[in-house]
Amino acid sequence: MKTQVCIIGGGPSGLMLSQLLHLKGIDTIVLEKHSREYVLSRIRAGVLEHGFAELMREAQCGERMDAEGEIHEGFFISHDGVLDRVDLEKYSGGSSVVVYGQTELTRDLYDARDKMNGAVIHNAEDVKPHDLTSDKPYVTYRDGDEVIRIDCDYVIGADGFHGVSRKSIPRDVLTEYEKVYPFGWLGVLSRTKPVSPELIYAKHERGFALCSLRSQVLSRYYIQVPLSDSVEDWSDDDFWAELKRRLPQEVADRMETGPSIEKSIAPLRSFVAEPMRYGNLFMAGDAAHIVPPTGARGLNSAASDIYYLYHAMVAHYKDGDDSGLENYSAKALARVWKAQRFSWWMTTLLHTFPDSIPYDQKLQQTDLEYLFSSEKALGSLAENYVGLPF
Ligand code: APR
Ligand code: PHB
What is the CATH number of the domain that holds 32? Predict the structure, then answer.
């Protein structure tokens, strides 16, 4: 087979790029390791920054997001028994975020690819990129006993943190930066009315908690847990009791509880691999960088990679201009590191660290007091949360 751009990974990054390029007449093939049902069964975060929502519209996939997603102009931080609101709209100069599940968004991207007869190959086994530093790279995968070869101009590594593309870059070329946090988030999805129309990020000495939602009848809650905990350690009753302990009384009192539909633990990790280009391989999204979920930057830092790659590819194919491709890694990494900084800051501000000394705790308290006493500090939080410009 032959294509212009071979995309490894059919998550939001790969699908979005494929859709955008197709609309500009650039041919792509997406190779996805898993079945569509599997990809769509993964529960992920649900806050889209303004720029990502715009990209969905540009990709002609924004209809359901605009009809069913909720625009949020603020969120709460609870601490010391009180709720303080961050007015995103006011402090970001009129911007907001869209609350729309990543699973739904991925479904919309698949539907859009189907409508355009986009080539998305599922259950592609042993995907391997080859000859990445030549001008004739190719990708192979296995379908049963048959090995299939795809010749292409460029390979996109959009295959997530555990994918094959980053591993195809020689170790002496790549520098990896990593920070592992000593806790995880236990998440529960439940068919209950959300306790608050806007998200609540809760700082509490027993540990962080988050009240989020997917719709007005579907809630998503998280609590910070030690890495040694497993899902089996947490019955639904124990989860609700612990969540309530970490929230102001009046919030806990109005919390509607119910059976969990999904329950999982995600460790918190920050990771960046540099550079994001090796020869004719370009990495995007989780393949190159991940953030802890505090601050909801995961999908949003993938969005800027896709935006830069999309424009770079269009400039290459339509105008013969390669400057976007040449600058891709440096440009993408500059924004990636800002998302890393923000996610680290929000994580540090709101979590309980097992090894923190009284001095650290005083600083954490002061950081929070400063935030709510300074319009400039709130402005910085707001501009990062709604998304820095691409
Ligand atoms: N070959 C082909 N596909 C692969 C391979 C492989 N060797 N390894 C992984 N994949 C697929 C995965 O099955 C997955 O569907 O690549 C896809 C990568 O998707 P994501 O992990 O969702 O990564 P990305 O598209 O960059 O999306 C970033 O997802 O994890 C969240 O917080 C993250 O919100 C962010 C978003
Ligand atoms: C979620 O709804 O799953 C969610 C929302 C905000 C976050 C993280 C996760 O910061």
Answer: 3.50.50.60
| Residue 357 exposed, middle or buried by CB count within 10 Å (0-12, 13-18, 19+) | exposed
Please indicate whether residue 257, judged by its CB atom, sits closer than 6 Å to ligand 1: no
Q: Is the peptide bond before 275 cis (omega within 30 degrees of 0)?
A: yes
292 close to ligand 2 (CB < 6 Angstrom): no
The DSSP code sequence of 104-136 is HHHHHHHHHHHHTT-EEE-S-EEEEEE-TTSSS
Give residue for tokens 């998304």: 387
The Cα–Cα gap between 225 and 238 comes to 12
Please say if the pLDDT value at position 63 is more than 90: yes
Range of the domain at 325: 5-72+98-178+269-353
120-130 pLDDT per residue, tens: 999 999 999 99
Q: Does residue 78 lie within any of the structural domains?
A: no
Residue 104 alpha carbon to ligand 2 centre in Å? 14
The model's pTM: 0.96
74 Cβ closer than 6 Å to some ligand 1 atom: no
**Are 122 and 138 contacting, i.e. CB atoms less than 8 angstroms apart?**
no
State how many domains the chain has: 1
* Amino acid identity, position 88: L
What burial class does residue 94 get, using C-beta atoms within 10 Å of its C-beta: 0-12 exposed, 13-18 middle, 19+ buried? exposed
The pLDDT score that the predictor gives to residue 334 is 97
Q: Give me ligand 2 centre to Cα 198, in Å.
A: 11
Residue 42 has pLDDT above 90, yes or no: no
